[in-house]
Design brief:
158 residues; alpha+beta; 35% helix; elongated
Length: 158
């Protein structure tokens, strides 16, 4: 029994070591499967750490990908829940880190979350604004009105 526990712990440890192998972050745009939309903000779980350099990992700023930014303290109060992030299954760690491709649901559950870089090793979240459907509707109505005005003027000229 004790031997099985030792073998199991060695396998888990070796899995953690291989997970932090040096690589480059994915540079393409984030697919919708890597973020959660809540209150017109896209939330991405970017990293298991909130420091720029940690062991062999480099965490990149939100501006590494177009349209992403740090969440404000007020926005952090309304971030998605652990359940909405699929207990860590919905994340984009591979898009922001040079080595890490995972996040830490235990940190989230303990409230160790941040959007700013700091001294603590907390999980990092970034946000991106998503236009609300009403914005698109108002744009279409405005374009329709401009079209009507342009036709009316064209009729007067003829």
């Amino acid at each position: 029994m004790k031997k099985n526990l030792i073998v199991l712990s060695l396998l888990v440890t070796s899995g953690l070591v291989t997970e932090t192998a040096s690589a480059n972050p994915i540079t393409s745009d984030l697919p919708s499967s890597t973020y959660v939309v809540k209150d017109s903000l896209a939330w991405t779980w970017a990293s298991p750490v909130n420091v720029q350099h940690w062991i062999s990992n480099e965490l990149f700023a939100p501006s590494f990908h177009s349209g992403w930014r740090y969440a404000t303290p007020a926005e952090m109060l309304h971030m998605p829940t652990l359940e909405e992030f699929g207990f860590g299954a919905i994340n984009s760690a591979a898009y922001w880190n040079s080595a890490y491709t995972h996040v830490d649901a235990f940190d989230f559950a303990a409230g160790h979350v941040s959007s700013r870089w700091g001294h603590d090793v907390w999980d990092t979240f970034y946000v991106s604004s998503i236009p609300e459907p009403e914005t698109y509707a108002m744009l279409l109505v405005g374009l329709g009105l401009l079209n009507l005005l342009a036709r009316r003027r064209a009729e007067r000229v003829l």
